[in-house]
Structures are given as C-alpha cells and as structure tokens.
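Example (one chain per record):
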Amino acid sequence: MAVLYISYDGAAEALGQSQVVAYLEHLAREREITLVSFEKPGADREAMARRLAAAGIRWRPLSYHRRPPVLSTAWDVLAGARAVRSEPAPELIHARSDVPALIALAAGRPGKLLFDTRGFWADERVDLGIFRRSGLLYRLARRWERRFYSEADAVVVLTEAAVPQVRRWLGGRDVPVEVIPTCTDVERFAGSTPRPEGPHAVWCGSVARYRLDLGVRLAAVLELPLTVLTGEVERARAGAPAADVREVAPERMPAELHEGDIGLCLASPSFARTATSPTRVAEYLAAGMPVAVTPGLGDLEALVEDEMVGAVVREENGAAVARAAAELRELAADPGARDRCRAVARERFDLSPGVAAYAALYRSL
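Predicted structure:
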C-alpha cells in the first residue's frame, strides 16, 4: 500500500520529529510512504532529508506561511493540494489534523482518507483566542470539520473521552475509530536518576495553552524549585519569574527529566480539552515522575487516579492545592510509585504499541 502522509507540522521541528517522523520510520518498513510537511524558517532540512532518506521515506517539504492570518493558511492549502496532485495517486492519505484533511479534499481525495484528528481543532482555536465562537471563522472551521468526518474512511482520536463526540459527528457511519494517544520512545527516558540536590517541580512544553500560573502556585506549596523547559521562554519567564526557564533541544530532554521530580500538566477545562493527550505526560511517566493534572484533560484524570501515578488538582482554592501537593510529595518519595509511573508509560504511551496500532489500521484500510 502506498501511503501519502500530510502534516502541517514541520518534520524538522521538535513536534514533527517526535510525533510524525518517529512513527513513520517504523511504518515505512512495510509501506511505501511519502511525507508532505510544512517547514518553518530555520529548520535543518538537510539533516531531516538524510534521516528520512535513510528510512526509505520520500519527502516533499513545503514552506509554512504564518502571515497574514487565514490567507497564509489558505495559500498553504493550495500549495499542499498541488503537491498531492503531483504525486502518484496513493492508496491511502493519512491526514494529520484538519488543515491536512482540507488539503486532501482540495486535491480531490485521491485514495482512502485516514483522518488523524489530534484534537478538536476549531474549538482549540477558540480556547487560544484565535477564533470567536460566534465568529465566521469558527463556523467555517466546524463546517469543514464535519465534512472531514463525512469523508473519512477511518478516524484516529487521542483519547477515549473524545470517542462519543466523534461518533455523534460521524452520524451513524460505521467507520473505524481508533484511540492512539500521543506516544514517546519510553526507553529514551528509562535511565533517569534522582537529582543530587533534591526534587524539582518540572513544566515541559507549551505555556500558551496551559496554566503555568497554577503550576507556580503548586510548586510553592510543594516547597520545590520550579524548572520550566519550553520554547516559549519569554512568556514563561513573565509568568514564572523565579523559575529556572530554559529551551531544551528534543534530544536533550531525557537528560533533563529526573526520577522523583514532579511533572506538571495543568489547564483550564474546556470542550476541546477532552480530546487532548499531552506528550509531556508520557515523558514524565517514562522518567519515573509522578504527575499533577487538572480535570477534563482527555483521559488523564482517570489514568492518574486508577494507576496511582499522580494527583488531580480539582480546584484552585488553597485546600485543594494543598491536598494535591501532599499526595504528590508522598508519591515522589516512593520508589514503588516511580516504578508504577514507568510501567504505565510502557503500557499506555510507548511508541511501539502506537506504531502497531497505525500499522493495523493501515492494513484494515
């Protein structure tokens, strides 16, 4: 089966390397794969070209345009559709999120369509303040989103919590809906050791879409130093001026996470959050770190409580934060809890089961 994979995230950026290329390198062992991706300025295209070529993956890198808003995305959709039409017709198009799905439809949908949702895209943009829920852009995005579900031959979602809503949007269509959370190479983090100076509270990844302010409060109650590892350095320093804020290359991340530290993944609840599976949680657990989460973040609330690998910060009042902090201190000091964290990471979030799930879905199509 020839597969054309479309990603609006660049293959050469950190997210693309961990959530696109890492999967495709395995899937290409039994499939002919062409990757169309949108690369941002400054990306090391030459190094990525060598890596993809070594895996036997054909690569069509296109340039990502940020401005002007909306029109730049429309331009990218047209460029992507031209690239897809210039390729030999694939048997399957794997569209990673909404913009790639729009590209597939604009290209005439040459092959079966796997809609890999990555979340509720239109509603996420409302949460980010990009769309207004009463605005035209949101209504158009939701209309296209329904079209993607009506055209898809299979759908991937990140969480069990998202499945009932996706089934409603499918309108009774009997197509496969597969839950594949964001995964990581768990073994890369297996060698983590405790910090010599004692544990830290650690925040990895994006700040804009999450509640760093709540992380600062929790770290203070825990009486632990706060380390923030993010590409949004200026925003993080403004929100956490006393923290150690740094940008870390993806290959350095395993060395920055330490067994017995506490990983923070905190956000305000919303409809879009039910479809969220943050990569940082998989990495925290793989490193033997208990995690602090907030309710409504995909499947994380149930995971943390059922597997006893962290605490849920249910409310923002002082008593609720103190309760969560007490649970987290106990877990961070318990070697058995650290072992549970790693076991859950291997079972739920390791790259190998994720690759196997995609491979099985490809075969079924």
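Caption: The chain has two domains: 2-183+350-364, 186-349.
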